[in-house]
Amino acid sequence: MVGIISYGAYIPRYRIKVEEIARVWGANGTEISRGLGVFEKALPDMDEDTITISVEAARAAMARRVINPADIGAVYVGSESHPYAVKPTAVTVGEAIGATPVMTAADYEFACKAGTAAIQTSMGLVKSGMVTYSVAVGADVAQGEPGDALEYTAAAGGAAMIIGNDDPIAEINHTCSFTTDTPDFWRRENKPYPRHGGRFTGEPAYFKHVIGASKMMLEKMGTKPSDYTYAVFHQPNGKFPVQAASMLGFTMEQIKPGLAVTYLGNTYSGASMVGLSAVLDIAKPGDRIFMTSYGSGSGSDSFDITVTDVINSDLFNRDAAPSVSALLADKKIVDYAVYAKHKGKVVMME
Amino acid sequence: MSVARFWRKQQNRYNLIGTRCTTCGKYFYPPRGFCPDCRREGKIVDHQFKGTGKVVTYSIIRSSSGNFKLLTPYVLAIIELDEGTRLTSHLVCDIDQVYIGMPVRRVFRKLGEDGSSGAIFYGTKFVPA
Ligand SMILES: [Zn+2]
Ligand SMILES: [Zn+2]
């Protein structure tokens, strides 16, 4: 059955505290942190971007399992911060894991759900027999305009899932999506920062789609929230996923292991996939995982996943790559000046 | 650097592909097409290095130009790969963290770019293991 053959996550080492960002803008950091449910966010090193994060995540997935790179028939990378406007991130990932040249590749964009869209495409290719393995990456070096609300959470990180048919560590029982044209958040061509519809981002956007896709999934599978061991929801902040979970009837115990946002921030296309990686880091055979992503614009992809015995077998070596909690623990806190330099906000003469 | 010149060495830079002389067992990175010891008897094949090694020596660069200006201060190190060949690389770590003999591993990083509208070059750097 189609499923996850291996997975890997990557988070850059640098962090800035939400309080430090608030200090620069004369805002109340403690209040903002508590309001968002986010205390720190990850930022890239000077020489890191969506391509390097995608490669590191994909290599982590390759390290956990013996996979012949020649059997990888597709690489898809979802992001809203591809370094090139024209020239795919996916080809560099393919080259860096040795999967080129006999493969197809493309980049995806769908705000924060481009990574789960890549998982769905990969599932289609695998199920139809077109490829043996397909790599789906969700990664971002998220941009928030200095002083804008998004700046407190826009973070860097990503995860990769290798999708295939034979002996998956987790079977994907079903996926379904809920999509509409909703102008809650956008970035125009050639503009460095996105804009958002303020309060409009909640009810008609995040909640409508996350709840919509999740309810469809529960109905289709004939399941109830208590049938799942874990649940992962897109996490633009620490509050929305908790609210969505309680609206659907999931408990805090079910969502806590996959709630990476608190000390990571919103990694956009990486967000729900890093959350899923954190759950796979601790999952046992038989555990059932519910996941729903969200991308502004807007859409949600829902997944029903069951962990198999393979996760504990000789075929798979979870310890061959760092867990999300290990990646979060290996950190260096910086101040706003260093953050500005890292994010390219210091303008140099060319 | 020209786009074509970089692209020709892309596999070497991305995946640490070097060469090995099967006659005497010596490894080469950057790759060599000719073994200086075995000369005409040498048989050279491609070899992908594991990407682990240790610091042989290093220096701390405090002032630099172009692509490296924003990276200062940074560590430039001579690294001996476990297979036994040496290369010079940017070592990504705090400058007070590095020491001779420090175990390191490869990472994938941006090496530079040709201005804000030119090509971006990627490849291998090292971090503490
Ligand atoms: Zn978003
Ligand atoms: Zn030789």
From TrEMBL, chain B:
- Domain ChsH2 C-terminal OB-fold per the UniProt entry, residue ranges: 48-109
**Residues spanning the signal sequence:** none
Q: Sorted alphabetically, which Pfam families does this protein's record hold?
A: OB_ChsH2_C, zf-ChsH2
Which InterPro entries does its entry note?
ChsH2_C (IPR002878), ChsH2_Znr (IPR022002), NA-bd_OB-fold (IPR012340), Thioester_dehydratase-like (IPR052513)
Q: Residues in domain ChsH2 rubredoxin-like zinc ribbon?
A: 13-41
> By its UniProt entry, which SUPFAM superfamilies does this protein fall under?
Nucleic acid-binding proteins
The family database entries (PANTHER family) matched by this protein are listed as: BLR3430 PROTEIN (PTHR34075)
Its name, as the record gives it, is DUF35 domain-containing protein
